[in-house]
Amino acid sequence: MTTADRPALRPDFLRDLLVVPHGPLERLEVVEESVSTNTELAAAVAADPRAWPAPALLVAEHQVGGRGRAGRTWETPARTALTGSLLVRPDVPRERLSWLPLLAGLATVRCLRATAGVEAVVKWPNDVLVPAPGAAADGGRGAAEEVEGWGTRRKVAGILCELLPDGGAIVGVGLNVLQGEGELPVASATSLALAGAATTDREVLLTALEESFALTLGRWQDAGGDAEAAGLVAECVEVSGTLGAHVRIDLTGGGQVTGKAYGFGPDGSLLVQGDDGTVRSLHSGDVHHLRVGSGSTAGPEASTGTGGAASSGPVGGPVGAPAG
């Protein structure tokens, strides 16, 4: 592709659309290159909190060391993706911030369905998937090749949420937009261009994404952080590509759990009924879809309330797509 096929973002144009009084953001900065927008934004906020009123967004045209869960890093070609980090300070109890990765995934899926016309879903907790070329929209095989652990869906976006010591949070999102097959790191990854999206205009997508985040997080905050009362738990269930699937979860501290994913716990954890009948509430881990469900099905006594605990540091993380 030529430079003309991968135009630069226009910071002033985006500020006119997205920064108050016309948009939801207090500050927006676009940098040519960043090792990690999550790291750089966290450092900037710590150094001068007044200069970064929330919500504030840092976007990089070229991210050379994006971070995900378990310390994974990768690089995205310049001007092919949307890689950015959003500073938020939601007025909700801190223990309810554990819902932030799922709500970020919901906002991203809603944006991609409405703006890009792709049937996006969330693979718990924070991977956004779309059907591979030739696959059915519900994840059915069709003519698409299956990838172990992913079925016929491919990862188009990754999310990494990190809580700050001062009570704020950073939501890093990496969305593959213009990459060709040779520019993707793994077979389970894709881009909007490869997925046949209705638009691959990064400015259109960024604007729609931030508006979707503002709407979703605004509803959550208006309900005092109660995702169920806000109607957001039901929406997270609706966009989940994990619920109803037989899964294997590689646990962060070692070990594995295999069973059927059937619901979300009161803190956004994944409820899995093991092959031995035992129900586990899982807060992190790499999820492999052994049989991707075509929809969400409730299991025994599925819980969809709010509450639970959140801690500082990373919450979830991406594999095969960039994050902040």
Automatic annotation (TrEMBL):
Gene3D superfamilies: 2.30.30.100, Bira Bifunctional Protein, Domain 2. InterPro entries: aa-tRNA-synth_II/BPL/LPL (IPR045864), Biotin_CoA_COase_ligase (IPR004408), BPL_C (IPR003142), BPL_LPL_catalytic (IPR004143), Transcriptional_repressor_C (IPR008988). Residues 305-324 have a biased composition (Gly residues). Its EC number is 6.3.4.15. Residues 289-324 are annotated as: Disordered. CDD domains: BPL. The keyword ATP-binding applies. It is an enzyme of class 6 (ligase). This is biotin--[biotin carboxyl-carrier protein] ligase. GO terms for molecular function: biotin--[biotin carboxyl-carrier protein] ligase activity. Keywords: ATP-binding, Biotin, Ligase, Nucleotide-binding. Coiled coil: none annotated. Residues 29-221 form the BPL/LPL catalytic domain. Residues 293-304 have a biased composition (Low complexity). Transmembrane segments: none annotated. NCBIfam families: birA_ligase.
